[in-house]
Amino acid sequence: MSRQAPAPIAARAAAVKSALIDKGLLTAETFDHMVHLGAEAWKPENGARVVARAWTDPAFRARLLDDATAACAELGYEGPQGEYIVALEDTADRHNVIVCTQCSCTAWPVLGLPTDWYKSPEYRARVVREPRPVLRELGLELPQEVAIRVWETSAETRYMVIPMRPAGSEGWSEEQLAGLVTREALIGTAMALPAHRQPIAAS
Amino acid sequence: MRGIHDLGGMYGFGPIARESDEPVFHEEWQETAFALLMAAGSVQPGFNADQYRHSVERMAPGHYLSVHYYERMLTGITTLLVEQGVLDLADLEARAGGVFPLALPVAAAPMAAFTPQPEARFRVGQQVWVRQYSCKGHTRAPEFCRGKSGTVLRVAPKFSFPDTSAHGGELREEHTYHVEFTARELWGADGNDSDSVVVDLWDSYLEGDAP
């Protein structure tokens, strides 16, 4: 068994890419297209728009809770890791939070590719056993009377949280409301932003 | 026993480091790793997500825990491509100018014995137990819920059974269930009276009667 230090990771990645291209198995364009999907097409702004629609349109909210895959597809959000989406609605007495303890599964089309903290061994190991200290550490202090449900993404269901609509956002447009819904709110490690945080939209 | 990837509930991990305005990819090699995962199906015969997940799970534990998510991704995909003869390790090491550590081989007899369950055996509201099984290969019931009892919240559609899908066994589909476990059931004194964990579990992993 070799004890030599590995080649730098950038060199290893470039080696695999160049070998596949040289063998004619992939093209540089295929690589670029995949990176575009991951870096630009799938993003939490998509999920934020789904939540804002649910906050303003009761019929859409009902469809989202009944079949989130179809409701997200209505807004054009579908694709890999979005084949079976379930929306989890927060209430005054129950808060939802998502994790994938065994890898880092996420609903890519509506949450975007997961960030490093979500993929970290620390989050994956700890949030199932100690959700309250973890949420507190991430800036969310929940009263004891609010029950926390941690959703472990162990099979093919991909989850998104519908956070509670912030007080003071009555009459806001869907676009303004979407600006209150962060990636963290869709995962459940934060609430939606308070309404006073929204910049006043030009009219 | 659990593999190194099965981290849920493990003690000893410290604070969760966060970065403000984190980019999707920090470096170009991370983009390459992601694109490889996305394109793997078109270059590797028989590629599937369960086989991929297990290729990452087979990394030596010290390697697995010490590197970035996208290095795990690159290591897993490359391991599969080398094992299937699509790429040659010596060629990759020559191109990279050094050692290219891969994941370890699949264990002998990687699958636990599960009876196929083509029909949904459980319903919403039913109490179920997770089988207390051992498995050296790919499986998706986290160890923290094995042998524990929970309540079915939802019956999800049928999906490919991961253990056989990862290991070239009989292809089959089974329903999964969103099973809610109280924090007390899972963690004993560490648990909290108001909290719970919901785990998405294939039919074969469950029993309707106490073990």
Model description:
The complex is a heterodimer of chains A (203) and B (211). Chain A folds into two domains: 9-40, no CATH class; 43-197, Nitrile Hydratase, Chain A (Alpha-Beta Complex). Helices cover 45% and strands 11% of the residues of chain A. Chain A contains eleven helices and four strands, in the order αααααββααααββαα. Chain A has a two-stranded parallel sheet. In chain A, 50% of the residues are buried. With 211 residues, chain B is an alpha+beta fold. Chain B has two domains: 1-105, Nitrile hydratase, beta subunit (Cyclin A, domain 1), CATH 1.10.472.20; 127-207, SH3 type barrels (Roll). Chain B has seven helices and five strands, in the order H-H-H-H-H-E-E-H-E-H-E-E. Chain B has a five-stranded antiparallel β-sheet. Chain B is globular. At the A-B interface, helix 1, helix 2, helix 7, helix 8 and helix 9 of A face helix 1, helix 2, helix 4, helix 5 and strand 2 of B.
Blueprint (SSEs and pairs):
The complex is a heterodimer of chains A (203) and B (211).
Chain A: H1 9-22, H2 28-41, H3 44-56, H4 58-66, H5 68-74, E1 85-89, E2 94-99, H6 108-111, H7 116-119, H8 121-129, H9 131-137, E3 147-152, E4 158-162, H10 174-178, H11 183-187
Parallel strand pairs in A: 1-4, 2-3
Chain B: H1 28-43, H2 49-57, H3 61-66, H4 69-83, H5 89-96, E1 127-130, E2 149-160, H6 162-166, E3 173-182, H7 183-187, E4 196-202, E5 206-207
Antiparallel strand pairs in B: 1-2, 1-5, 2-3, 3-4
Widest sheet, order of strands of chain B? 4-3-2-1-5
Task: Please tell me how large the radius of gyration of chain B is.
Answer: 19 Å
Query: For the record, what CATH class of the largest domain in chain A applies?
Result: Alpha Beta
**Portion of residues within helices of chain A:** 40-55%
> Can you tell me the CATH class of the largest domain in chain B?
Mainly Alpha
Structural class of chain B: alpha+beta
Largest interface: pair, residues per side: A-B, 72 and 81 residues
Number of helices of chain A: 11
Mean pLDDT of chain B: 95
Q: Helicity of chain B, in percent?
A: 25-40%
Written as H for each helix and E for each strand, in order along the chain, the element string of chain B is HHHHHEEHEHEE
Coarse morphology of chain A: globular
Structural category of chain A? mainly alpha
Specify the CATH homologous superfamily of the largest domain in chain A.
Nitrile hydratase alpha /Thiocyanate hydrolase gamma
Strand percent estimate of chain B: 15-25%
